[in-house]
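Hi W.,

Here's what went into the run:
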Amino acid sequence: MKFLLDIFKTVRPTFGQGGRLSTFKCIFDAMENVFFAPPKVTATCPHVRDPLDIKRFMSMVIIALLPCLATSFYFFGWRLVAMIMVSYIAGGAVEVIFAIVRKEDINEGFLVTGMLFPLILPPALPLWMVAVGVVFGVFVGKELFGGTGRNIFNPAIVGRCFLALGYPAAMSGSWTTAGTGLSGRMLQYVTSSNVDAVSTATPLVLAKQGQFVGLWQMFLGNISGSMGETSAVAIILGGVFLLATRVANWRTVVSILGSSALLAAVLHYSQPERFAPPVWYLCAGGLMFGAFYMATDPVTSPTTKAAKWVYGIIIGAVTMLIRNFTGYVEGVTFAILLGNIIAPILDEIVIKVRLRSLSNEG
Amino acid sequence: MLEGKPGRLIEALPEPEALYLPLRSRRFEFSELCVEDGRRVNGGGVLARDPNNYAVPLLAPRAGLVRLDAAKGHIVLEDISKTEFAYSEQGELPHIVRQMGEAGIKRHKLLELGAWQYFSDAFGGALPDPLGRPQAVIVSTISLEPFVARGDVQLQERLLDFTRGLEHLQSLLEYQPIYLVMPDISSDFALQVRRQIRGYARAELIEIPLKYPYDNPNILARHLRLKRDGGPVWFVRTEGALAVDRALTLSKPCLSRIVSVAGSAVELPVHINVMTGYPIKDIRTRCIPAGVVRIINGGVLTGRAIDTETLGLDTECTGLTVLAEHTERELFGFARPGWDRSCYAACFLSSLRKDFRERFTTAMRGEDRACVSCNFCEEVCPAGIMPHLLHKYLYRDLLEETEQARIDLCIECGLCSFVCPSKIDLTNQFIEAKAMLEQEKEEIRREKLKAEELQRQQEARGRSAKEKEY
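Here's what came out:
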């Protein structure tokens, strides 16, 4: 791999101070550091460091998304690849522009946003909307606050929220049925015009009309819905991986799923003919995907443990309430957004209490 | 498991040609010279003192010829020989002895024979007042930081000396408790200690988990529910108790100590028995393979790198940690499976391995990023404070808030910096902030004194004016 290193070495002066392309230094740095681990050494104590860095941290989320990507590729085909590419290119442009303006490094957090965003969109959504959504999400949801680590909203959620409010017709009318059989839709490219089954209702829409899709079908994901959200089994697989690697915090996941299941159970056992059983609600829509991948984003979720529990309970409860008692069909997006808003307040309260007990120490 | 942990073997190094005694160590600065250039001193003779730390002496480990200007920041002893030195009590004893009687003589001896420098205050880490009255004494047989000299090695075949040291410590106290910290208080070794000290010293055995940094004096004191307001807590490790025994039983100065030479870059990690001022060059040629290495005075997490100007071991050195300087650049380092790197967050495949030896280098292993609030730092913090919160306060220059968030409880163990995936240098930020707070407090104190002085002067002037009127 020496020749690669040599290439970087010869190109570096062009991007260095006073070089012709010094404006784009962040792009060069990002490329170099992706290929070769940075040579930086510790200056003072502690002289050794844990091997985990943000690159690895964010890669773990991508790895955890692989099962979801596989199932959504099977169910919805090449459209997924196109949407991911659009999302990466459009959102990446925003990220790079901001890195150049701010003279900071390009942040890896974007790789996760760019991957998550297509997975929470309807399969037949026009590609330009994907681009608009991700640009809005990254710009307003993240960069305006100062980039990864300083944002208070999950950028992917902000993007989806924007699309849901700005283009309600497209967002609620771009569903397709999932592919079946050996090849699924893996040989197809779904658009809003070429698929006969466009605007198929999702299980949650049907549930409003009193029809409940079979639980087994919902578990496997053979239903209509957002790209990555349909298959509960894939989400659980990736989610457990995220929890095991401690990238996602189990408290958030448990409290979201637990509180929504509890509320669903209360509803179901009081009016069994109107509401489905709790497990059905867990597998429906984006609840599980949101709980494992979106709400656990460490930046926008609360930091302290106690606040994580409350945060999760609020998201779970609000989701169920929106789903069942408002005109909206799905409430995870708004619930997480609401959770993001109150996360700093929850943290503030927990920290106040902790500081009070700390003040008596030693 | 880390690669490069020293075994139980203690190696005696040959006598060096010259000794280079640094005038500075972590706590001490021996600025008051007591010898002249070109004079001969006896082994155990006082070379210099630290006027700010109860005049702690820097003792000559060997007899030899003093050179003050041979190396910057060092006293060099040339032409050394191993003549034993005996402490004479006839010399003029300061007034303290008259005041304190028997115990005073003992404490004076501890100070003059170099045993006192092993003591520290469990709360602040500074040298306690040798004539002060502690609220408790903590004796720890455990050193948990990777690569420093361990208590079990220092205790080998010296258990009797150790328990006798405890008895001497007891004789310095009135009713204050001695806490003896051990890894397992029901082990044979603990039983043996218990049997030997019975009746002579009232030591309470305390068990702590063998996990860094539970051996930290501050953590131990908090664990024992000792309060800062209750007065100083003396903390001393195994070697300190042994030094107490040597000073008070044999009336001999403590001139040599057991130090570890370990770390991933050392082929054969060992403990060595050396004296202060032993040339680092000699240790290098003997124990450390050639190559680009970083030699650290102390453990891998809190030690300080030895620069090229330091020529000899200082008086407080507990171990030399040697790490290979990181130079190579891994291809796709972040995406490697990582069978050989253990990680706090289980993000590498090594988590599936049971036991393996990890080889540390000085690599930062990542790029600087903004805090993502992963909360790992709070999870590992042994002091129970919130490093991420302190970091955010400091980022906004809110020094006062960090004080309210109890930055003073930070024990500088380095674990938060270690685990941080954003590679934020938390520990050093906290050390700096603490120093700044300390300075601010000092200024306020000084201003207060000045104001009081001014007021007193004015009053005096007023009084004299009145007197004049009469």
